[in-house]
Specification:
The protein has helices at about 5-15, 20-25, 30-35, 45-55, 60-65, 85-95, 115-120, 130, 140-145, 155-175, 175-185, 230-235, 245-255, and strands at about 105, 110-115, 210, 215-225, 240-245. With about 260 residues, it is of the alpha+beta class. A five-stranded antiparallel β-sheet has the order 2-1-5-4-3. It is elongated, with a radius of gyration of 21 Å.
Length: about 260
Amino acid sequence: MSVGVLLRDWRQRRHLSQLDLAVEAEVSTRHLSFVETGRSKPSRELVLHLAQHLDVPLRERNTLLVAAGYAPVYAERPIDADEMAPVRAAIDKILSGHAPYPAIVVDHRWDLVSANEAALSLLTEGVNPALLGERGNALRISLHPNGLASRIVNLAEWSSHLLDRLRREVAVSADPALDQLIAELRTYPGVVDGPLPHDGPAPLFVPLQLRTGATTLSFVSTVATFGTARDITAAELSIESFFPADEATASFLLSR
């Protein structure tokens, strides 16, 4: 596929007209039109400039460059590479510092990269080992009937939230593997794809209500990323930290 077609697809995905993008990126509408139709070959600098204004993920910026006839500029180093030591150190500090509350690290397709002891203890209890393995997928572990699903008290609400979140990530990344993951998750028993009705005002957040033994724990989560990353692997990592949503959950975790 030509770079012009790819740029047009990203522009349309961002719901921008040619004029919108031209004004935002400070290029002429005529030149942008010529690039999209293949009448003009964009420079390497223009490809990166437009990709930045379109908020194209680093992985796909490389794809744009290759389509335009240029070499990729963003490296994708394995997480265990020597150069990734600062990333691993930051992750370890965040995970250990969040104890005794659970925290996990996932990549752009929700495959598990790391987790602290609290997460390994709470979020894998009763999970079929076949779902775990090396780089198990956090969403499969959560929603599969042989995963956490039987322990999630508010499965309908939680699954609706996760699928909505996943769809927003598809809109940002255009990754077809995430579309396939959505299609798979929708087939799991009890999973709801779509908004649920609420009586009265919408709640502040969707909690994860997780049964462990005779106790039901309630969590709210936050997500952190490496905002200044210029390596594909680092840019695609997300650190999800779970916090107690009530005093009973906090007390339970602090007493473990």
